[in-house]
Sequence to fold (252 residues):
Amino acid sequence: MPTSPSHPHVYRDTLLVLRTQQLGEADRIVVGISPRQGVVRAVAKGVRKSSSKLGARLEPFMFTDVSLAHGRNLETVTQAVTRRAYSAPVVADWDRYVAASSVCEVAETLGLAVEAGDPRLFNLTVGAVGALARGEHLAGDVLTSYLLRAMAVSGWHVELWACARCGAEGPLRSWSQADGGTVCDACRAPGDRPLAEDALEYLRAASAGRWEVLDTDPEPGVRDRAGKLIRRYVQWHMEREFRSFALLEGPL
Fold:
């Protein structure tokens, strides 16, 4: 986007705020994701003062139009206008908050790993946080669907329709974390997990965003077990543990 002739180093962008951290006595570092730049880190000066009008617009989960000034290490936020105020409804519900925190934590990691200028990860992230804010679906379903689709657009496709080892179409009754997907009976190896048919169907629906399927009640525990498999897959292939995932974990 062209810059103003009088302010050649200021430009406009759109951010979903992923997280913030305090800086000094009154400033804050804002980490967001942009459709053109990927992950953006910027300083918002004075936003922790009671007189600041920017602070509420730059909270985590806010979808905001911003003006940014180029800096040596960090950009500087000079203006912010709220597009969608997702923060309040997300923070008001524990399940939505944990799921949105997980979405944003993964988005930051993936955004740093993929090429800037691809808006697909941004669009998926905004869509997931927006769905959580509106309470359209169960928070766990939104998170699992997001993880499958975000990993796919970032180059880590999860194989759910054929054997991840030999390409056979089935029967697919096992799961390999290392190979990233389902495994046929002939290729099953020690360490592979059993994968029930209802869990496989759930994951297929989540990967395609088929909410008419996800919004129905599966057998008890199906969505929880399937969600844990995907979260562990993400951590395995990202080679890091996500702190927000720990709030969701229980025995597999």
Remarks:
- Strands lie at 10-23, 27-34, 38-44, 62-69, 75-85, 172-176, 181-184, 193-194.
